[in-house]
Amino acid sequence: MNLVLVGFMGSGKTVVGRNISRRIGYGFLDTDHFIEKELGCTIADIFSEKGEAHFRKLETSLAERLDQLDNYVIATGGGILTTPGNLDRLRRAGVVVFLKADPEGIYARLQRDTKRPKLRGGDLRETVERLLAERMPLYDQSDIVVETKGKAINRVVGEIIQRAAEFRAEARAVPGEPPPGAPPDSPGQETEP
Ligand code: S3P
What number does the ligand 1 atom closest to the CA of 31 have? Predict the structure, then answer.
């Protein structure tokens, strides 16, 4: 099983993802870095030479393959959910965690950015607000939402690990059967061989 981090640019997916992977001994994959390595050029080059639609195809083809990984933390690009079907593709790969940063924090972190093609041209605050408004309904469909505002990275990491474990335990629990960890002879519960 994998943990898949989604969220807006500048919300800390890569840093948090690396920290989680170190803490629980999982591998780490960043979809943007993977695409850059596979193609031998930067995301900005792909956008300027082939266009965003081409990048989304590459991203989606990688999303399709992520379920081949096991015990990985996967940090995704901020626009991955804008392609229809990608939420399901990510869900097939693992528990989808939305790293929800506050708009002011995002804006502050992206102010010095020079690499992200979606932020080029126009007013940064307007771009961030527009994209956030478009994407929030998509991010909000994630399995788990973790707010990051005012929290130290270790706390965010700990919260994600704990909530993902709870989510998996709930997903495994079959209605009418005792939850994982319940005593086998608890009243009213039948025990299976
Ligand atoms: C994008 C986010 C970027 C990268 C690309 C497009 C987006 O990833 O995939 O520049 O549309 O939000 P980060 O979220 O890691 O910056």
Answer: 9
